[in-house]
Amino acid sequence: MAQTAAPALEWRGVTIGYRRPGEPELVAVDDVSLRVGRGETLGLAGESGCGKSTLAMSVLRLLPRSSRLDGEVLVHGEDVAAMSWGRLRTVRWTEAAIVFQGAMHSLNPVRTVRWQILEALELHADRGGSAQSRQARVAELLGMVDLPVARADAYPHELSGGQKQRVMIAMALACDPDVIIADEPTTALDVVVQAQVLDVLSTLVRERGLTLVMISHDLSVLAAVCERIVVMRHGKIVEQGPSDRILTAPEHEHTRELAAAFPVIGDPASRRVVGRVASRDALDAQRTEPTPQRPEPTAQRPEPVEGRSPDPADPPLLEVRDLVVDFRSRGRAVRAVDSVSLQCRRGEIVALVGQSGSGKTTLARSVLGLQRPTSGTVLHRGEPLPTDRAGLKAYRRAVQFVLQDPSASLNPKHTVYQAVAEGVQIHRLPGDEAEHVAEALRRAELNPPETFFGRLPQELSGGQRQRVVIAGALALQPTFLVADEPVASLDASVRGEVLALLLELQRDLDLGALVITHDLGLAWNIADRVVVMHQGRLVEEGSVEQVLLDPQHAYTQSLLRVVPSRLGSRR
Amino acid sequence: MTLAESTPALEEEQPRGSTLGRYLAWKGGGAAISLVMVVVLGFFAFRVLPGDPAINLTRGRRVSAAEVERLREELGLNDPLPLQFVSYLGDLLRGDLGVSYVYNRSVGALILEGLGPTVLLTGSAALISIVLGLWLGQKAGWARGSVFDKSQTGLALVFWSVPTFWLGLILLLVFSGGFGWFPSGGMVTAGTDLRGLALVLDVAHHLVLPVLTMVAVVYAQYLMVMRASVLEEMTSDYLTTARAKGLREDLVRTRHAVPNALLPTVTLIFLTIGGLVGGAVTVETVFSWPGLGYLTFQGLSAPDLPLLQGTFVVFSSIVIVMNFVAELVYRVLDPRLRSS
After folding, report:
1. Nearest chain A Cα distance for residue B250, angstroms
2. B246 vs A94: CB contact, 8 Å cut-off?
3. A108: which chain B residues are within 8 Å (Cβ-Cβ)?
4. Which of A331-340, B12-21, B85-94, B124-133 has the highest mean pLDDT?
């Protein structure tokens, strides 16, 4: 308050640990010092568990009781840790406010938007104003984030993800704070909505001269809004610098890993080359000699996998003809998939791209025989999808699927062996069961497989879990995979692992895949062909280069405009 | 990505009135069907009770076999079962629950007389145990693992596991027999003609021990459910939002955590109120409380078939109606249910 020259935020030698019963303390933030000047916009990047959220929460002393903080956290020169509770409560929201991930559960589900914004205003009512002026303020705040005033009387569940995020921003601005901390403000939002929310946020920050600290795992999102980016790993700052430099010329290996997860579309270096390539130099430096038993996987070679494109003259392995799926919702029919025709060939990776609600998941479910189409057919090797139990069972062995969230799709009580062997048992594959499981795990690069047999999902990393799911599919020796957002819930570094695995399987086993994603970067990374879906219809289809570099349909063009890596250039 | 996400979001809202109307009709219809089944069950269930009402009613008196037979004929016990059932249904439709064998009075009048005392007893007990249980439960949940939490949950569970009749008898022995602080039974002091405030105080005096017994036995379930519910909400992100806004910890609890934690508890409250009325049988019997429970107990010894059928239908209806009310209240409390 008194020291006007003090930076808006400053961390001095901050170490934050979490006490865990029966285990050594978990150090989330390890001796971090950082200054954020007034009016500066700073991005905090890193994977889950790197300490970026812990660091941000320490600003308002919002850490759980089990935490221990060493060092100083200064807000406008005042040490937060030394504040009395009363002083702290005054500082909260009036000097620094947080934009939480509103799309999730950061709004109270049983209170209206108005109630929740008014609460903040009434709490800090000493800033003046009558009940009437507070009501006017609510309207004004909603106007700032481009929401109609009528939405004030809505409950959170009546709002879309983007609207909830706007409410969070409006609420954070309620008491005119100087500092805004935005914690993953666009995670779980659609690319189009993400672009809108980022636009609202950065405009407000710029116009009001606010200090912004934004947290994200996505470097390109940060680069679109922030001047400076700080990259964290294992509680330490590994690299920091101006956004453009971090994005275009990252120095630290981990920064490069993060950057590779959001490839620049059109950049040949990231075409059919994924993840680990980015950190390949570092890997090579560590490795004294290559592992003798195993040939080095293709994905670790810098040159793109070539000659892998399937022959267009091949008869399609899977074909969808004029597929229509209607849902009845509140007595009305909703057409989720509208006359879609699609062909997938052996050994071909097709990316099905669209926003949430575009019907892409429904289409995939129909292809898997999980959703009965209203009309139209799905053909496998030229034959219509069987409808009897035995036929469907055989079909599902040939066409396996991989779901988005490996922690949800694996039974937490089943060991890796059980998870992978289940399919083998159901389909009564000939030969030794353990051999099948070991082979599948080896294929999914879980080596040596025997060491994974007895492990439970909770003992594995996110990437390992997803590879167990893929191994479960591979155990049945399928000819085709349907993968629904296979890497959306994974961190940047493991995203690369999983995508590299899909490319390898394509090369070694001639395994084709229909990959459903909202991420055009992923399509650029691994796909042969792209199919764009919008409001239940296929609006554009073609080779990756053709569709992503020279989009014809207006919707594809608009999708490409809001890809985070392009957002920065609009600034 | 879930299935729900794959359906395009609906832009227009359906008029809310029609959904509410359909919801009411649907739930009300379900309740009506349950009631019909209770009525049918109520008739047949008591026909399988052992004991011949005619013989039990004439026990201790010198009566000839012919007289017993005539009584049987009079009570309609000799008619074939289907015929008895039809006349039972017919009477029920006219609101006639028959005449009690034991009291020789209209069952409807008897039930009406007993309803007041029962509602008074169970209503007071329910109110106190719900308020006490919910309040202790949210405190205990919020301070999980504290001395308060451990002692309160421990104490509640001890009472919960004690048999109702035993606790009632102990309370009677100590506070009525030993200290003589409270009357040993009934609802009003016999032989007095109290009016106004004096009457209220007298009834309240009689009410203390039976209510205490009921509260002690049932408040634990409200405490445990509320505690679990608060624990569930405690890690919710919106509580972090509330703290970040600058709310005091007790306001975070009362304004944000508790309203959300109450939601699952409400259903339980209404479900148990129905059960509480049924549980009144034991307490009313121990304390000779002139309510429906006591009436049922009297009817069982004969067996007084019309009386038992009557109380059975009333008890069951209370449970069904309470379930119906629970559905409605839940809808009012949780905005998410209103629009779906």
Report:
1. 13
2. yes
3. 238, 241-242, 256, 259-260
4. B124-133
pTM over 0.90: no
Comparing CB atoms, the residue among B3, B6, B237 nearest residue A106 is B237
Residues in B touching A94 (Cβ below 8 Å): 246
Decide: B164 and B213 in contact? Cβ < 8 Å: yes
Q: Is the pLDDT of residue B150 over 90?
A: yes
A100 to B246: CB separation less than 8 angstroms, yes or no: no
The answer to whether position A273 is within a domain reads: no
A124 contacts: CB under 8 Å, gap ≥ 6: A90, A93, A94, A175, B246
Segment B233-238 shows an average pLDDT of: 85
List residues in chain B touching A: CB distance below 8 A. Answer: 1-3, 5-10, 14, 19, 236-238, 240-248, 255-256, 259-260, 263, 333-336, 339
Decide which of A219, A238, A260 is a domain's last residue. A260
Residue A173 within any structural domain of the chain: no
Give me the residue from A157, A334, A488 closest to B7, CB to CB: A334
The label of the residue with tokens 């699952």 reads B264
CA nearest to A533 within chain B: B6
What's the domain range around A73? 9-104+178-260
Please, are residues A466 and A487 in contact by the beta-carbon 8 Å criterion? yes
**Average of pLDDT values for A362-367?**
88
Distances, alpha carbon B75 to alpha carbons A85, B62, B86, B198, B297, in Å: 77, 19, 15, 43, 21
- Residue numbers in A near B7 (CB within 8 A): 327, 329, 334, 336, 357, 362
Q: Whole-number mean pLDDT of chain B? A: 82
On whether the CB atoms of residues A207 and A176 are closer than 8 A, the answer is no
Class of domain B110-338: mainly alpha
Does A373 lie in the same domain as A238? no
Average pLDDT on B249-276 reads 85
A355 contacts chain B (CB < 8 A): no
| pLDDT (mean) for A478-497 | 83
The pLDDT tens digits for A208-241 are: 889 999 998 888 888 888 999 999 998 899 999 9
* CB-count exposure of residue B281 (10 Å: 0-12, 13-18, 19+): buried
Nearest residue, CB atoms, A535 vs list B8, B244, B260: B8
The answer to whether residues A345 and A218 belong to one domain is: no
Measured CA to CA in angstroms, residue A195 lies from A245, A264, A399 at distances of: 22, 17, 36
In a domain, A296, yes or no: no
Q: Which residue has the higher pLDDT, B14 or A257?
A: A257
pLDDT in tens, A16-72: 998 888 778 888 899 999 999 998 999 999 887 788 888 988 998 888 888 889 999
**Which residues fall within 8 angstroms of residue A556, CB to CB, at 6 or more apart?**
A532, A539, A540, A547
In this predicted complex, what is the ipTM? 0.73
Query: What does the pLDDT look like over A429-465, one tens digit per residue?
Result: 888 888 889 989 988 888 888 888 888 888 887 778 8
Whole-number Å distance between alpha carbons of A268 and B24: 62
CB contact under 8 A, A484 and B245: no
| Residue A10, pLDDT score | 92
Residue A252 sits in the same domain as residue A348: no
Is residue A93 one of the residues assigned to a domain?
yes
Find the mean pLDDT for residues B229-237. 87
Q: How many residue pairs bridge chain A and chain B with CB atoms within 8 Å of each other?
A: 116
Q: Is the peptide bond before A412 cis (omega within 30 degrees of 0)?
A: no
Final residue in a domain of this structure, among A218, A242, A260: A260
